[in-house]
Design goal:
Number of helices: 4
Strand content: under 5%
Radius of gyration: 17 Å
Distance between the termini: 43 Å
């Protein structure tokens, strides 16, 4: 019975970690998508950058919807891939928008509710 309990505890922990990774990725994407509604952000980017960033966000959000039960590593890999691909655009925003403007950070850490 104790062994069974430990197994369930391990499985619960794995599921929690998977959900945290998924939420972290969704949090980043929806925060960036929401920020793209702000004129300061849009003015800091070229039209092609806005289209590219929007397309990448929507594509990844659609992937998440289709892959609700992927492994933790799949969500983490998608997040790393997105951050690397969009880094030049995100850096451009950070350099042109005032520091007081709160833009979600594309990090691999836990989501921070203050960044949304």
């Amino acid at each position: 019975m104790i062994i069974e309990s430990e197994q369930y505890r391990y499985e619960d922990h794995q599921e929690q970690e998977r959900i945290k990774s998924k939420i972290s990725l969704e949090f980043l994407l929806t925060g960036l998508r929401d920020r793209l509604q702000d004129t300061q952000i849009v003015e800091a980017l070229t039209d092609s950058q806005v289209v590219s960033l929007t397309a990448a966000i929507e594509t990844l959000l659609a992937w998440i919807q289709k892959n609700q039960f992927e492994a933790k590593t799949a969500y983490e890999d998608k997040k790393v891939e997105f951050c690397k691909k969009m880094q030049p655009i995100l850096s451009s925003i950070r350099s042109k928008v005032p520091k007081s403007f709160n833009l979600p950070a594309p990090t691999l850490g836990e989501p921070n509710p203050e960044d949304a």
